[in-house]
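Dear Dr. L.,

I hope this message finds you well. Following up on our conversation about the binding site, I have prepared a predicted three-dimensional model of the protein together with cobalamin. For your records, I am including the exact sequence and ligand specification that went into the calculation, followed by the structure tokens. Please feel free to forward this to your student if that is useful.
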Amino acid sequence: MMSLLREIAEPSKRQILMELRSGPRSVSELVDATSLKQPNVSNHLAKLRNRGLVKASKIGRQVYYSLATPEVEAALIGFDRGEEEDSQSNASLDDLSKQYARAAIAGNEAACTKIVDQLIRQSVPLVRIYQQVLAEAMRYVGKWYEVEAIDVGQEHLASAITERMMARVVHFAPPTRNAAKTAIVGCVAGNYHSLGARMISDFMRLAGWKTLFLGPNVPNESFLSAIKEHHPSLILISVAFEGDVPTILGLLAQLREYHHENPGYTIGVGGRMAEIIPEEFVRAGADFTAPNLMVFSEEILPRIEGGANLPIGVFTNHKKVD
Ligand code: B12
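The resulting structure of the complex is given below.
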């Protein structure tokens, strides 16, 4: 550990290691990113490799370097915490979400990583990073797309970067407890907007639930077979489009039927349509609807875990609708 800290304390090596936090880099990419001379970069990399801090992998003719273990990354973050007086440290989460959105549509993953890492260092909870920075940034991306300021490629780029940033946030947020219950989360068939459902799924996992994330565009039969196989206590479905409403209503009807044979699960619906026609989903058999992760984590999950009577009801932003 001491030798690890000694290496990190050396500014040029730290510059290289910090750059590798955003992903594997070749020597020439590291030269561009750090402005160090090529022989210096190669020399530092050789030493860092010898000491087990960096590993090399060959793709075609090119050699890529990356951090050797999660401990190296954790040490870098710890070092950085005390060291760096970051210009962003006083920025509000809203400013950060906008900065993040701009960086994401430009494909500047290093800048996105920097914003996210800073929030991790400041111990901002996962729910706030997800909701107030990443989800909010994606809302900006949507607005820019709508006014044709960006194209579909940039929208995809921002989504893919955001998925990787979410993995990063989860990586540094250890599970807090073990609820020993199972949840199944997925998007109804036709819905490819999976970031929201994945946020809910990550949060559930950290809340100690065994969580099975089925991803985007899940056919109703696949939802049902996963439910029959894993016996979840909670089923969470994301629906974004009007066109997907008949499909989810069909799924809710099937779930109601199966419930007679296998009671014991709670059903929640979220996503854009859950804000537009929440009552319809509750009438069709959902136990609750939620507009976002914040409301789900603060208002709904505690009720489920506390054994609240079902249905729990319709929630809009931060309040229950009676
Ligand atoms: C990114 C994005 C995409 C990506 C999705 C990538 C991915 N892996 O998810 C791609 C490029 C694939 C895509 C495709 C399309 N999209 Co799109 N997309 C967006 C965008 C920009 C952001 C969505 C997002 O990820 N937000 C961040 C997440 C975290 O927020 P969220 O999904 O709302 O989830 C939160 C809550 O809803 C809730 N939640 C969600 N699910 C669940 C489930 C449960 C159980 C619970 C409790 C809570 C919950 O919690 C989450 C966190 O708070 C929006 C713009 C916008 N304003 O939303 C448009 C948007 C949703 N897309 C739209 C459209 C039209 C499309 C396309 C038809 C064409 C297109 N524009 O490319 C296709 C259709 C694909 C399909 N069949 O699903 C429209 C939808 C309009 C509508 N409702 O009819 C929007 C609003 C853009 C617009 N203004 O036109 N899209």
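In brief: The longest helix spans residues 126-146.

With kind regards,
A. P.
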